[in-house]
Amino acid sequence: MTTHAPIQTTAHNAPQGERKNYLNCTTGFWSWASTLDHKRIGVMYLVGTSLAFLAGGLFALLIRLHLWKPEGALFDNATYNQVFTLHGVFMVFMFIIPAIPGSLGNIVLPLMLGTKDVALPRLNLLSFYLWLGGTLMALYAILAGGFDTGWTFYTPYSLYTDKAVVAIGLAVFVLGFSSIFTGLNFIVTTHKLRAKGLTWFRMPLFVWAIYATSLLQVLATPVLGITVALVALERWYGVGIFDPRMGGDPVLFQHFFWFYSHPAVYIMILPAMGVISEMLTVHSRKPLFGYKMIAFSSLAIAVISFLVWGHHMFTSGQSTYAMFAFSFLTFFVAIPTAIKEFSWVATVWKGSIALNAPLLYALAFLIIFAIGGLTGVILGALSVDIHLHDTYFVVAHFHYVMMGSTALAFFAGLHHWWPKIFGKMYSEFAAKIACAIIFVGFNLTFIPQFVMGSRGMPRRYAQYVPEFEVFHQWSTIGAIVLGSGLALMVVYLVQSLFAGKPAMKNQWGGVTLDWETPTPPPLENFDHPPVVTREVYDYSTVDFKAMRTPANTN
Amino acid sequence: MSDHAHHSVVIPAPGPGFQDHVVAHHFDTADQEFDACKLGFWLFLATEILLFGGLFAAYFYFHQMYPETFVACGRTLSWKLGALNTTVLLLSSWTMAMGVRSAQTSQKGKLLVYCALTVLGAAIFMVVKFFEYSAKIDHGFLPGRFFTDPAGELAHLEYPNMFFSIYFTMTGIHGLHVLIGAALIIWIMFGAKKGRFHAGYYLPVDLVGLYWHLVDLIWIFLFPLLYLVP
Amino acid sequence: MISFQDPTPYANPETPDKLGQLTMLASTFSDVDALFYFVMATCVFFFVLITVILGYSVIRYRRRTEEQPAASNTTHHTMLEVVWTVIPLIIVMVIFAWGWKGMNDMSVAPRGARQYKAVAKQWNWTFFYPNDPGNSVNELWVEVGKPAAFTLESTDVLHSFYIPSMRVKRDVVPGRLNTLWFEPTQLGTYHMFCTEYCGKDHSVMYAKVHVVTKSEYEKRPWDQEDPNPIVNGQRIYSQLCKACHTIDGNKLVGPTFKDLWGSSHVVQLANGSQETIKVDEAYVLESIRNPNLKKQPEYMSQAMTQFDAAVLPDRRVNFLIEYMQTLSAAGGEKK
Question: How far apart are CA A90 and CA A98, in angstroms?
Answer without folding.
Answer: 11
